[in-house]
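Here is the promised in-class demo. Please do not try to memorize the tokens; focus on the logic of going from shape to residues.
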């Protein structure tokens, strides 16, 4: 089964007053994400992975010992990552549900401490990649970072929140100021109800 590019859950210009321009979403969703969909669909055609779920393809093709991941993994994982990313943002007010606030406070000491750790992970990811808030297999909440398209599925974790720190995600709006992009993401763009629903 070929991959399918999902529609954005909001208009291209819906996040513009929140720090993510329509131009960024046009490039990021319509071009970059679509490239993962097109290339991934071509790569799985006629293979054992055709017809498998996206999650099965990711976990089945990830190689922890590899210096660089294979093409099927890269495109499938980036497709999955972006599917989550669009849903993790909101064009409207998104207050943090009490359950999530309590969980973050219990795990990190405070919501602000969580945000600081998340921003540090994203800013400290050398080159392209992602930073994540995950729920580990033992139920603990942790902040992690991954290179390129690697994601929490590879480690048996549940992705609660992820931020794309590839340059295509922020360079139009923030140029080389990745820390500013991360702060804006946490303070203005995150759909905290979506994050809480993943707990």
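The designed amino acids, position by position:
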């Amino acid at each position: 089964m070929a991959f399918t590019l999902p529609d954005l859950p909001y208009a291209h210009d819906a996040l513009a007053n929140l720090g993510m321009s329509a131009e960024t979403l046009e490039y990021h969703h319509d071009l970059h994400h679509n490239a993962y969909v097109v290339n991934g669909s071509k790569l799985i055609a006629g293979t054992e992975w055709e017809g498998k779920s996206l999650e099965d393809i990711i976990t089945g093709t990830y190689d922890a010992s590899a210096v660089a991941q294979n093409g099927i993994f890269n495109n499938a994982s980036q497709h999955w990552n972006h599917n989550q990313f669009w849903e993790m943002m909101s064009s409207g007010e998104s207050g943090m549900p009490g359950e999530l606030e309590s969980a973050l406070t219990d795990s990190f000491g405070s919501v602000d401490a969580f945000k600081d750790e998340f921003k540090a992970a994203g800013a400290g990811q050398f080159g392209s990649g992602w930073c994540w808030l995950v729920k580990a297999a033992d139920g603990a909440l942790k902040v992690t970072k991954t290179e390129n398209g690697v994601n929490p599925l590879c480690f048996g974790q549940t992705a609660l929140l992820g931020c794309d720190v590839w340059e295509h995600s922020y360079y139009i709006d923030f140029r080389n100021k990745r820390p500013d992009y991360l702060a804006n993401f946490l303070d203005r763009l995150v759909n905290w109800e979506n994050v809480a629903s993943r707990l």
